[in-house]
Amino acid sequence: MDNLDYGIIGNCRSAALISKTGSIEWCCLPEFDSPSIFAKLLDEEIGGSFDINVDDSYVITQKYEQFTNILITSFKSGNDHFEIHDFMPRYRKEGNAYHAPPELIRYFKYISGAPKFSVVYDPKLEYAMGKTESFIKKDFIASLTHEVKFDTIFLYSSFDKKTIVDSGEIELKEDGYILVGYNEKLLLPTTDRAYLDLQNTKVYWLNWSNLTPTYEKFNEEISRSALTLKLLSYDKTGAVLAAATTSLPETIGEVRNWDYRFCWIRDASMVIKVVSELGHKNVARRYLQFIIDLIPDKAEKLQIMYGINKEKKLTEVTLEHLAGYKGSKPVRIGNAAYHQKQNDIYGILMDVIYEQMAKFSVDIDNGEDLWAITKGIVWIVSNNWKDADKGIWEFRTEDRHFTFSKVLCWTALDRAIKVAEMLDKKHKIEKWEPIRAEIWKDIYDNAWNEEVGAYTQSYGSKELDASVLLMESYGCVNAKDERYISTVHAIGKELNNDGLLYRYKNEDDFGLPSSSFTVCTFWYINSLFKIGERKKALEYFERLLSYSNHLGLFSEDIDFKTKRLLGNFPQAYSHLALIECAINFSKKESEDQMLESLRE
């Protein structure tokens, strides 16, 4: 497989990636950040997978059931036809609790003829660090490892268990199922129960999607992206993951391979802002509770990222025994970036807090907690905004005065003042306004480079950086501001490579990137749209959409030459930015139609 041609299924507890031929090649149980049970994605030889094999006469196609996260893979050879409906159960129980067990179900739907297939069931527990053995028991197949650490998973099926273990041929004559779960089931599964789980899960996703507004243009892309972002939210704590994978490289054969199964305050806050704009306020409410729970001490600084269960220490370890995706080593779990200092996270979080309090001020929970956090953020930013930091791209070398970090420090004060205005805290407004003005003047005087004709990556540099495009999005400058227009044009000229953008071109800790960070191209498209170059923006957007995989999913990066997807997958950053762009184009079309009808 040369591209990341995978679908994702999940239940807001864990997730699995399934290839376009129906092979499960990545899955961690019981939670997103648990050790893998299938990791062929990271080592084709020893990683482990759950394959469905058919002969060469079968045509295999794949799609999502519309407005759901149920993945349907169709196998057809003449009249012989069956489908696999892959999903992780999620639906509401009595009260407000959800049924979301650590398991996946493969529902085999008989369509016609006498279709035949075989199963290659090859789990490799604990990141394939030791030997995994499978044993046929009365009610299930148990797979276990104990060399490095003891762990087990259980397989239940309507098909003969020995045939599954031996990869024997199965002729499908009626619907059947295979359930792989982390826990032994107390109630024995049946095909009828699997079907009921499928229908209940379908209803859950349809109801969730029904809350998302319908748009004039790009409605399918917005819906799929929203469903993907929901899949990356961890229901138990409210955390939002950057991606569902670890160590998928930004460039094949290089070492930019990181574990993204954590909650970055920046990425998560941006996701929450977009998802709540789509009407899904419960996701936002849970995330804000996650933040409140993380800050028991008013003076405690935020880390840039946390574990999904609020862990503060994310020790980075290399798994030397795994070959890596397409041979790209090292494979890492944990992420050493957690101790970095990045001043931008406060502004991004403060922006979300303001948005939520403005939208849901009447029914917002924890208003007093959020006001306390607001005051704490202002105190930290006021005392630290003049300091250098690592910046949004997490340079592992020296600290710099990054323009984006300064803009987000300004944003923190600006949104805090807006919250204070909502709460009629006049004393705080008077105290904070001069600090906001001082930060803005500092940016205006020091981030602009007259010779380059743009706001640059950091103070005193000539280097351009795509993150600076967000100055307008956060309200630091106006889209009609000549400096901003000039910056957009300069970035387009310098960082554009065949319709895709570099984050920056100055060499970082690992040299010049050879792939585009997908979100940067979306930012550029949005900036073109904002400064009035809408036709050009739409052309770029439609071209970028064509680089998604067969299911409309995006990873972190796109290779400049081949346009193949690279980096961790699916990437929350990419999908939230897609939604922002798509909504802008859709709203503009609606406005144009309204103006046209008024003229008639």
UniProtKB/TrEMBL annotation:
Gene3D superfamilies: 1.50.10.10
Trehalase-like N-terminal domain residues: 8-133
Domain GH15-like: 219-582
Pfam families on file: Glyco_hydro_15, TREH_N
InterPro entries: 6-hairpin_glycosidase_sf (IPR008928), 6hp_glycosidase-like_sf (IPR012341), GH15-like (IPR011613), Trehalase-like_N (IPR045582)
GO molecular function annotations of the record: hydrolase activity, hydrolyzing O-glycosyl compounds
GO process terms (BP): carbohydrate metabolic process
PANTHER family: GLUCAN 1,4-ALPHA-GLUCOSIDASE, TREHALASE
Protein name: Glucoamylase (Glucan-1,4-alpha-glucosidase), GH15 family
Organism for this UniProt entry: Maribacter aquivivus
